Amino acid sequence: LEFQGTSGNVDIYDKIRNIPLEFKTTRASNIMKPKPWHVQQLKYYMAMLNASQGYLLYQLLMHFGNTPFKAFRITMNAQERKNQLDKLVKEASSLKIAMEARDPSLAKPVIDDSALNWLCRDCPYQVNCKRIQDAAAAA
Question: Is the pTM of the predicted complex or chain greater than 0.85?
Answer without folding.
Answer: no
